[in-house]
Amino acid sequence: MNSSITITIDKKYHIENKKFQYRVKRIMDIILSIIGIFFLSPIFLIIIITIKLDSKGKAIFKQIRVGKDGKNFTIFKFRTMRVQAESKMELNIDPNFIESFVFQSKSDSRVTKVGNFLRRSSLDELPQLFNVLFGKMSIVGPRPEIPEVVKYYPESYFQRLLVLPGITGLAQISGRGEIELGKTVTYDLNYIVNFSVQLDIKIILLSIVSVFKREGAY
After folding, report:
1. Quick check: 140 and 128 in contact, CB under 8 A?
2. For an engineered disulfide with 78, which of 48, 69, 124, 143 has Cβ 3.0 to 4.6 Å away?
3. With DSSP H G I counted as helix, E B as strand and the rest as coil, what are the percentages for the chain, rounded to 5?
4. Distance CA 51, CA 151 (A)
5. Which secondary-structure segment (H or E) carries 63?
6. Which residues of 43-61 are buried (b: 16+ CB within 10 A; e: fewer)?
């Protein structure tokens, strides 16, 4: 199995050395998620109504993702695809070239008209503020992967599961949905190694800029 990842993280040393900053990070997550849910609730309602008018099915999409320490959790997103589209998903993963895998496709016929807008604007990610509030995710961190991809991870890739997954991260401001898995993991591990509250704030600000530019989102 090919892999170009050479970063090795000492979990015990890393967590102990940055314990205080991780506590501050969690406090920030709670405050930002509560503020976000409160002030964005009117937008939540508008999006829900728009999704329901555009296509049949529930407005909120739930999916199993792999979180911190390899534990599965349910992620929340606004539905962007037609009902039962997930059952038609073809990943086409080659275990021997896992580093070249790209999850999203620019031309996915399963995506609805409203869903296309939500993806490009990243508004489909807003319900994950509840995941952050419940402690399953962080505002900043590696994007949570689906189990079907994680099962093909080489050993070095599992290091990205040392921290809570995030709504945004270093990989997202560097290419969002269009970069290959190997590059994504490299960004994620660099983030973990260099983690600081200041870095989180920088990534959040750059994420806002990236969303407005709609770079790499589809």
Report:
1. no
2. 124
3. 55, 10, 35
4. 33
5. strand 60-66
6. ebeebbeebeeebebebeb
